[in-house]
Amino acid sequence: MSAVVQPVTDALDELLDGAEIQSLVDGLDEVVVTLERKWGVGRLRRLVDDDLRLRFDAQVDRFDAALIARRLAAVRVHAGGLRRAWQVLDAAATAAGHAPLSPNVWECVLPSSGEVVSLVRTPEEAHHVADQGRVFTVAEVGVLIEALGSDVLDVKRVFPGASLASVRSKPPDPPF
After folding, report:
1. 24 is in which domain, residue-wise?
2. What's the number of domains the chain is made of?
3. Model-level pTM?
């Protein structure tokens, strides 16, 4: 091969390897997205025993190292291993009696805009239903209540059972 053809051939091989690596990543991502929809983002690996979680994490590390090094043969091997590892987690969580994520979603209509927002308990549940619109967790609602100031909490304390119809800002104190 001539000195000019070799760099072109090497570049083409690298480009093709990159396309195959991306294809392997895309296929693995589909498995991950499917199982995260079922179990919740980040939840599945926490449902299995420590030994299985450690083995799963080691497989993730091997796959990541192969991906960073852009070693096609290693990415092939470890993508397949990680795909199987996700399936093993799914089976182990099911065998242990854990239930897939099934969030309770409360919806409310915002009075001024008519927009519907959803309320859920946890970030995992929020991620599970995020494609359905705007979602807030109970913790986020707590942050919003605190941001309103102590007057709102005082009203609820002084008038137990009172319904909150609107909140208005207090006018600023006069400068004199």
Report:
1. 5-95
2. 2
3. 0.62
